[in-house]
Amino acid sequence: MNWKISFAALILVAMSLPLAGQCVDYSKDPAGCQPATFDTPIGQMPSVRVNRLGNLDPNASEQDVRVGVAALEKELHLFRNFQNLHWVLTLPSVKDPATGGWKGGDLDGAGDGRGLGIAGNCIFVGHGNGPGVRHAVNIFKIQPDPEKQPPAQVGEIPAMFEGNQGFDERELRALVYTTSRGEDRYILIRNAGTNNIGRMETLRIDPNTCLPMAKSETYDFGGQSHEFFLWHDPANPNRVLVYMTIWTSGLPDPNNPGLKIPDAVAMAVTDEDTGEMLTKPRVLAGFSLQDVGGPPLDERPDATGLFSDGRFLDFSDQKNRSGQPGNFQNREQNKLHSLSVTPDGERVYVAGTTAGFYVLDSEAIAHHKDADLAAGRAGCNTRSTIVSADGVIDGSKLAAIANDCLHMVINNDPGLKAFLAAGASPQVKAQRYLVLLTRSRFDVYPPVNALPTGTHSAVFVPNRPAQVKGNTRGRPAYVWLTDENGGCPLNYARMVSIESEITPIMVGAFAIPDNQLDECLDQAITEPNGQPRRRVAQQNHNPTVFKNLVFNTWYGHGLRAIDISIPQNPREVGYALPLPHGIARTYPVFKDGLIYWVDNDTGLHVAKYTGPRSSELPGPGSGVYEGNATSPHR
Fold this sequence. Notes:
With about 625 residues, this protein is mainly β. The chain has 7 helices and 37 strands. The protein is globular.
């Protein structure tokens, strides 16, 4: 026997065996072996300026900050399956003449970044602003080699303001499109305001310089406009609509005397015949959940603490390291926060805060002309039929809801239509309708606490049509929901099945370690050097969703990449947590294989995902993808 050969064979066999604790995946899943979800090392992450040694230092130069940050990001393993390409400053720091130290800028973790809009080769970044603060919108241009060259600033758009109050540039959306006459047009929609002011305007952009060429009239909503979806009609290249949510709905509508501001408004921003920017946005239709029998705005509990749909969990006897109590709430705002619209325009998926998630039918808007909708000639009710007053539903009016331009999909059900047309009393009709209406909302509040928001974003999973009988339109099977909740415990993201549109159900979830109450309560409250730590909010926020991957900004827990190939079992496959520790806020925007997002505190970041299924993501020349606009777009 040749012992040399046998010994060599044994060595080869031993080398092929997994080491103790090493993962071996036999499933051939591209995302097979993955480490546990990353536990954000908050106590080790500086949230303010550092020097090249990574130590807190308000006097450090920009070059030293960048060297120190890069070293700490590597040491703390703050990037996995992401190539960190560029950190682009949007707000400069100011030197304190008394101390010689720097403060107030992105390098200090003290920026105020907000909305992000990208189309063509132009990037627009807004700012939070406030009393006495009016930072302009930054205009950047993407360079010829975007992986190696960071975007370069080429101009500004003055901030919107009133008196001493600079407006929060909450949302920006950009779109390049070709009109029916074959002419390219570039528009930017900006939504800005305060806690009680909301204003929107459209700007025509020069695609070569990225600078504004013209501006529409400013539309005043009469209350705080919040988030919006930009929809481009696949059947009419001239037609671009905005679906705007209103945070202060229910107030008197100054644009329509005698009516109240709706929860959501559909508006045209281009001329449907020419594709040119409208001089003033045109309102087409509105929807209000409380009008059609949904829970009231600003709902309060009875004397025992019981709401109409239950009771909130009370964690107030638990305290974090600062002595702050755990979560408990005594109101449900039941507002509409944000939404997404299918490419065909026939469905709207609603993130309704403490009223939960639900689906709207928008077929009338998708398939009628703007002029007919605005003039009331489309054959549908441009506002929600008011069937509820003081919590009492009038069963005799319920049948009319199905003819609203925007209405909940439960009103389409043939069984409900037949029942409402039958001879039952209005009271019996109202009782049955309320049960079905309630079930048509995926609502976990209560018992889950939801401060400040609840269901924050609702983005459908593309290219995964429901396999149920009768889905001839190829409607999605799933929607990804984010849940914005501060305090402890923090909330998590959910995968919801809409295979039955009238009864959405949760089928999967994704959480981070700090979603556990004990971990949340025990978070560090000091910087790495022991000094008091700047507060960094940590709720999950905005997702951009692909067939098998979700990219979710998660505030203080950075940008998370999540594999959803098995919707019932989401798994983390990468993350990006730039320093200083900040607030990853915007929808991630994908362009030419790169990912752009704005951090509230540290500015604009550019990275490239390199993890499992990266080959499935859109590459160079494939257009722009984001969670809050028809994608892809130019």
